[in-house]
Design a protein that fits this description.
The chain has helices at about 5-40, 45-55, 65-75, 80-100, 110-125, 130-160, 170-210, 220-235, 240-250, 255-275, 280-295, 300-330. It is mostly helical. The protein has one domain (about 5-330). α2 packs antiparallel against α8 and α7 (about 170-210) crosses α8 (about 220-235). The protein starts with 6 loop residues before the first helix and ends in a 6-residue tail after the last helix.
Length: about 325
């Protein structure tokens, strides 16, 4: 593959990007529905429809700051060509499929960042990386679960104090209703942050091929396509990861589910408006651990949480290695 590609290859690469977006929705469906399913507020088949709807309409709420960060803030736009995009997507997709198969809630976002980084470095060395944008994404690995953890912890304290005079039955009934709101907000934040990453990939590919003129932008058809692909992926569920997120980390009540989702949603809203590509997986995991720790530290299954953290640590380098290998493999193909 060389820098200038034909329309069939361009269409094929966009299809691969949308496949990643679909797998992102499939892989991360657990982020949106694990709490509301594990508290038995909604059955799984209804929960995925609920989450998919709010995933899709997220473009009506958020700008495209995250798409711009991914498109122009991780590696030098001048380095990007069809081979780099293809290799980046292969790295992210392979890692997503492996972790989905193992039931590990890893980050699709950081798999994509790792894929971009690995492919860019394979092509142009260290000069390919935009360290200012990359450092923002790397910092979010630590901050997003921490912020989710702290917000969920504070919310548990507030609602526990506010509910002290209510009966357990009344509290449970009230938060079963409120979980519909918190789950909607979290799915909205998930669709707003995660779908934009694929938008950025497709837009920078179009830009590198001269289809966007002299100014980088995200066409509306790209926005709609990415939101739809993610929503369809969410509809397919991700039941292995739902079990890990909703049942294995800690046992959740409707009140705790509401606090975890609200804390996670607030974190995603802040990050998306600031243009920071955070991991929705990291965010909701931190929030779930936060509500569990608010009850007592032993309520959290720390061995499960620690295995998730290990997956977080290796996601970027693992996806980067696969992407670098895929890039070098494309160099062996005849120019198209």
């Amino acid at each position: 593959m060389d820098a200038s590609i034909g329309l069939p290859i361009l269409v094929g690469l966009i299809a691969v990007a949308l496949l990643f977006d679909f797998l992102n929705g499939l892989h991360d469906a657990a982020n949106s529905i694990a709490t509301i399913v594990s508290t038995r507020v909604l059955r799984p088949q209804y929960a995925v429809f609920w989450a998919a709807f709010f995933n899709f309409i997220a473009f009506l709420v958020f700008g495209l700051h995250v798409a711009n960060t991914i498109g122009t803030g991780i590696i030098e736009p001048s380095v990007i060509d069809a081979s780099v995009i293809f290799a980046a997507l292969v790295g992210a997709i392979v890692w997503n499929v492996v972790t989905w198969g193992l039931g590990i809630p890893s980050s699709s976002s950081h798999a994509l960042i790792g894929g971009l980084l690995g492919a860019g470095l394979a092509k142009a060395g260290l000069s390919a990386a935009l360290w200012s944008g990359l450092s923002k994404a790397l910092l979010a690995i630590v901050l997003s679960p921490l912020v989710g953890f702290l917000l969920a912890l504070v919310l548990v304290a507030i609602v526990s104090w506010a509910s002290v005079r209510s009966t357990p039955f009344a509290v449970d009934r009230a938060f079963r209703i409120l979980q519909f709101v918190s789950a909607s907000l979290y799915s909205l934040g998930h669709g707003g942050n995660d779908a934009q990453k694929t938008m950025g990939i497709i837009a920078v590919l179009l830009y590198s091929q001269g289809y966007l003129g002299s100014e980088f932008s995200v066409p509306f058809w790209v926005v709609i396509s990415c939101q739809a692909a993610m929503a369809l992926g969410t509809l397919m569920g991700g039941w292995r990861i739902v079990r890990t997120m909703g049942l294995r980390i800690t046992k959740l009540t409707p009140m705790q589910g509401f606090c975890a989702e609200t804390g996670g949603a607030a974190t995603l809203f802040m990050a998306t408006f600031l243009g920071v590509p955070v991991s929705t997986t990291h965010t909701i995991t931190g929030a779930i651990v936060g509500v569990g720790a608010a009850r007592r530290m032993s309520a959290v299954r720390w061995n499960v949480a620690s295995s998730i953290v290990y997956a977080w640590v290796i996601t970027i380098p693992a996806a980067a290695i696969v992407a670098a290998l895929a890039y070098w493999a494309t160099r062996l193909l005849p120019a198209m």
